[in-house]
Amino acid sequence: MISRILMTTCALALTAGTAYADYTLHVIHINDLHSRIEPINRFDSTCNAEDNAAGECFGGIARVITKINELREELAGENVIVLDAGDQYQGSLMYTTYKGDVEAEFAELIGFDAMAVGNHEFDDGDEGLRKLTDNVSFPIISGNIDVSSSNILAGQVENHVVLEVGGQKIGIVSALAVDTVETSSPSDAVIFTDEAESLGADVATLEAEGIDKIIALTHVGVNRDKMIAENVAGLDAVVGGHSHTLFSNTEEGAMAYPTMVGDVPVVQAYAYSKYIGHLVLEFDDAGNVTSASGDTILLDASVAEDEAAVARVAELAGPIEEMKNRVVADTAEPIEGDRSVCRAMECPMGNLVADAMLDRVKDQGVQIAIQNGGGLRASIDAGEVTMGEVLTVLPFQNTLSTFEVTGEAIVAALENGVSQIEEGAGRFPQVAGMTFAVDAAAEPGSRISDVMVGGEPIDLAATYGVVSNNYVRNGGDGYVMFEGAANAYDFGPDLADVTAEYIAANAPYTPYTDGRITMK
């Protein structure tokens, strides 16, 4: 596609055609906002007003706006671009209620210079992404998706963009994870090609135009980003998203910011509006990066919330309260979800949630569902079921996570899950698609027996498809055996939405236990 030439409002216009050595570019970036329009708590879910007032919350779009505006002010007269690496959509009731309108409104207010397409931009099909492209004035790019055959998206997504900043041309290329066809809902008219091959072709196009400063703005995940940095010649930096990876030079366990892959810096800024990244690139006169520095910036309570944004968010939150009162289904009997039950044995709420999870991904070859009992926070009364009640049971905005592990890892997971029954720990495993027995009197690590999957004894050497929530898949509640799982995807739909839809599809729902967990 023909590159678009844009002027950033923060750039200092210099005389074109003159050579400038030691050109410095400031790249401000976010990724994977996931509709965290309101502030978040330490669990990355929506923070209540009392905790926010007490200074215990992070992020939210009002803090994002404040910090980006502050950085633009501080860097006035310097060369600045502001980028978003995708996944504005999905993850809070703001998205469930407004289906992208809110994210588009605030993205336009921020005024990104370019945004990558994220996989969740397709969660409501091609129409969902079209709503975003229709309501922002900046370019939305992704070079490895061909939308020309889509009557909805044709002409809406560009391969790449060229930004003119301080008299220099900066090429921005982009790619989206090719497994988006499995993790979201693009139409068959959207054709994906290999990320690295596509990026290489777009870099070559830009270089043929004489552009020697090129940044990849990707939504493919950190491992793929590192591969791209190593194998795609001509890239000066990779600014990524999708894997929600924390890069930081101060926080323990984070990747270094930037992480150098050869001579190419790779960065990301976690997710959920909690951080903003600030990458500083210095180029020589030949367009080579001579220095890469910077860090992520934590948006804690020390960052003031933009007052106009706070007022607008409050206005938008009104109908969400109405949503909480919306009746989504009904149940014939109370659904027991008390912690004293669900953290110690098979419980009706555990069966409901695990069944809902497995039903949602049954067409993906997944055989087993595991839900930590501590993720179930309430019971539901008989009769009408409101969305608010479902959200009270599942308040953490956990997302569905699918992955593959061996039978040996599954048994290890079950042992972990029952290792602290006597303490009422939240790791107790509620399951679907399998059965097992527990001897709580045995030593931890030797309590599980009679594990069956689909009615057959588990094969320790075989590989099984599993669905859980993203907290468990990433090692929460001691499930460390899942951290290195194969083909892991942690960013499916919200577990509360999945459960509400399952209850509705089976209304009036009758809660039950069926002996899938036997306590010896």
Please explain how this structure is put together.
With 520 residues, the protein is α/β, with parallel strands linked by helices. The chain contains 15 helices and 26 strands. It has a seven-stranded mixed sheet, covered by helices on one side. Helix 5 links the parallel strand 4 and strand 5 (140-141). The radius of gyration is 24 Å and the shape is globular. The relative contact order is 0.12.
Topology record:
Elements: E1 5-7, E2 23-30, H1 49-53, H2 61-74, E3 80-84, H3 93-98, H4 101-110, E4 114-116, H5 125-135, E5 140-141, E6 145-146, E7 160-165, E8 168-176, H6 180-183, E9 191-192, H7 195-208, E10 214-219, H8 222-231, E11 237-239, E12 259-261, E13 264-267, E14 275-283, E15 289-298, H9 307-324, E16 327-331, H10 339-342, H11 348-360, E17 368-372, E18 383-386, H12 387-393, E19 400-406, H13 407-417, E20 429-432, E21 434-438, E22 448-453, E23 456-457, E24 463-469, H14 470-473, E25 486-489, H15 495-505, E26 517-519
Parallel strand pairs: 1-7, 2-3, 3-4, 4-5, 8-10, 10-11, 11-13, 17-24, 21-26
Antiparallel strand pairs: 2-14, 6-9, 7-8, 12-13, 14-15, 16-18, 17-20, 19-24, 19-25, 21-22, 22-23
Helix pairs in contact: 4-5, 11-15, 12-15
